Each structure stands twice: as structure tokens, then as C-alpha cells.
């Protein structure tokens, strides 16, 4: 808006004075989560410069101002981290899906943590939105499971199995499950999570291990979940509980 351009001109003047540059040497960039009206673009002589969603203008005070509209950026991998901050929920969703499908979590643990944290904040802000009416609890649970697995895959093994919070989470989930009546769906979810962690640490599981996991009760799943942190083999996890 107008105020943003005013503040930008003041900041540019101070910056140029500080570093001793000339106005023609400066290019300022504004990244906008919202898309302004066309009248605003026309008034300040902004024109598209190539990539979709990118505009430039030469203001009266000189230099170049580049505008990047997150809602308009193409659904490309290199745009996805920025598009997470777009104002339109549909664009945010596309960005998160692109990050997941492209495996960007593997860039670094820190990047993965930032994206998951941002996703959680976005989800909290839109749960009561009319756009969420078609989103079922099952869809949300499945989405959460996929994101959890993506984070496990992106986390180095030595970090994953040294996290006290993960161990605490497994214990807490078991206790919460008991309070909820030990539903079959919860048992299945615990077995799937334990299976994923075992595969991550020991590779493909033998038939006897898969059968043990599918037939186990909640108490056994909890016990095995705790052993995985210190076990050096599958036998130590299951303690020879197979034939």
C-alpha cells in the first residue's frame, strides 16, 4: 500500500547515506502476502517483469522497486518456501504439498522444523474457516501422519533416537490411549508408528516382526517402543518373543 512505499523510500534514503551508494545502484524488494488492486499497480507504474507474480517500477525518487506477490507465484519448488506465507489458503496448501513431494525436508532438520511449525500455526488459524468445511477428521489425521513420517525420514538417526521428547511422546500417547478406551484405531496407529521407527533403524522387517506388531496389544506395543531406544537388534526389541 501507499504507506509501505513511503516507509521504503525513507529506509532506502537512510541505507544509501550509510553505505555511500548512489540511487541507481539500489534495487528494493517487497514481498507481499496479499495481492493489491490493479489500480495501485497502475498508479505506481508497476509492470510484470517475467516470472509470474513479479513486478517492477522505477519510482520518482529513483532506483528500482520489485514487488513479489506470493499468491501469484507459480507452483514451483523454488517458490514453495515463500508461498507458505501467501494469504490465500489454497496457495498455502499447494506450497506445503510441493515441499513434501519434492522432499525439501531433507535439506536440513532446521528447515523441516520451521515448515512443520509454520504448518501447525496455519492449521490453527483456519480450522474455523468456511473453507475447512469439506475437510474431514480422517483427512487431517492422515495429513498429520504423512508429515510425521516425512520428518522422521529427514532427521538423522543419531538425532532421532537421542530425542527424550520422542520417548516421552510414545509413553504419553499410550497413557492418553488408555484414557480414551484403547480404541482399535489407536492401536493400529501405534503399531504403524513403531513399524516406521523400526524400519528406519533396522531396515526391512522380517515376517515374524510384522506379525508380532499386527497381533500385539497396547501393552506390548508400549514395551517395545521403550526398548527401541537402547536395542542393538530386533531380537532385543522383541526379547525373543517369536518362534
How would you describe this structure to a colleague?
This protein is an alpha+beta fold. It has 3 domains: 2-69, no CATH class; 77-154; 160-238, no CATH class. The chain contains 12 helices and 4 strands. Helix 8 runs antiparallel to helix 11 (218-227) and helix 9 (184-202) packs parallel to helix 11 (218-227). The mean pLDDT is 75.
In short:
With 243 residues, this protein is of the alpha+beta class. Helices cover 58% and strands 7% of the residues.
Features:
4-stranded mixed beta sheet; 12 helices; alpha+beta; 3 domains; 243 residues; elongated
Report the major sheet: 4 strands, mixed
Radius of gyration (Å): 25 Å
Instruction: Compute the number of strand runs.
Output: 4
Q: Which percent range describes the beta-strand content?
A: 5-15%
Mean pLDDT: 75
Shape: elongated
Low-confidence stretches: none
Measured as a percent range, the helix fraction is 55-70%
- Can you count the helices? 12
- Counting structural domains, the number is 3
Layout: helices, strands, pairs:
Elements: H1 2-19, E1 27-32, H2 38-43, E2 47-48, E3 54-57, E4 64-69, H3 80-83, H4 89-101, H5 109-126, H6 137-154, H7 157-160, H8 164-179, H9 184-202, H10 207-215, H11 218-227, H12 234-238
Parallel strand pairs: 1-4
Antiparallel strand pairs: 2-3, 3-4
Helix pairs in contact: 8-11, 9-11
